[in-house]
Amino acid sequence: MHTYNIHDAKTHLSRLVEQAAKGEPFVIAKAGKPMVKVIAIDAPEPAQMRRIGFMAGQIEVPDDFDRMSEEPIRQQFEGEA
């Protein structure tokens, strides 16, 4: 996400608003300190965003997951024994 100082934001406001409307939010800073974040009005709220782990408890990883296909992979690196 890009950060613009107030002067640059005022100078390029039309272009920046168009970008934000297309899903590219930006931050306006004053003296290097972020002040506001500009996002599209129809952008999903943070609570609506899907997060990693949304399927917790719905899938299971086998106990031997880290050893699955071990032999074929070993053979590819070491050659046929």
UniProtKB/TrEMBL annotation:
The organism's place on the tree of life at top rank: Bacteria
Family: Belongs to the phD/YefM antitoxin family.
Species for this entry: Denitromonas iodatirespirans
Matching Gene3D superfamilies: YefM-like domain
The protein's name: Antitoxin
Highest classification ranks of the organism: Bacteria, Pseudomonadati, Pseudomonadota, Betaproteobacteria, Rhodocyclales
NCBIfam families the UniProt entry points to: phd_fam (TIGR01552)
InterPro entries xref list: Antitoxin_Phd/YefM, YefM-like_sf
Biological role stated in the UniProt entry: Antitoxin component of a type II toxin-antitoxin (TA) system.
